[in-house]
Amino acid sequence: MSGDGTRITRGGRPRSEQLHQAILKAALDLVLEVGFRAVSIEGIAAKTGVGKTTIYRRWPNKAAVIMEAFIAQLGPASRFPEDERAVERLRLQMQTTAKAFRGRVGALVKALLAEAQFDPELAKAFRENWTLPRRKLVFEVLEEATQQGGLRKDLDIEAAIDAFYAPIYYRLQMGTGPISEAYVDKVYEQAMEGQRQRVKR
Amino acid sequence: MSGDGTRITRGGRPRSEQLHQAILKAALDLVLEVGFRAVSIEGIAAKTGVGKTTIYRRWPNKAAVIMEAFIAQLGPASRFPEDERAVERLRLQMQTTAKAFRGRVGALVKALLAEAQFDPELAKAFRENWTLPRRKLVFEVLEEATQQGGLRKDLDIEAAIDAFYAPIYYRLQMGTGPISEAYVDKVYEQAMEGQRQRVKR
DNA sequence: TGTGAGATACGCAACGGTTCGTATCGTTTT
DNA sequence: AAAACGATACGAACCGTTGCGTATCTCACA
Question: How far, in Å, CA of B131 to CA of B48, rounded?
Answer without folding.
Answer: 30
